[in-house]
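not sure who needs this but someone in the group chat was asking about MTH1187 family thiamine-binding protein from Streptomyces andamanensis so here u go. i didnt clean anything up, its just raw.
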Amino acid sequence: MIVAFSVTPLGVGEDVGEYVADAVRVVRESGLPNRTDAMFTSVEGEWDEVMDVVRRAVAAVEARAPRVSLVLKADIRPGVTDGLTTKVETVERHLAGE
């Protein structure tokens, strides 16, 4: 399963980078495969472990912000591993004309 999620603190002003870094730190310390881009952090693993990481990432932001927004999208596909890499590689192959 791959989950792409975004945690946004509300009520803390416009500069939210340090709060988002708290959430990303939780993801990176989890040991699960992950990627962060300008909009989302994606994490891959089994349902319970991924959702636990998301819960803890939200809690890290919630500890410092009066309100938190969570956007989450999940690709639930049993038996698939390394989806974070293989999905992108497939698109790149098509772009290269293979």
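also The radius of gyration is 15 Å. if thats useful
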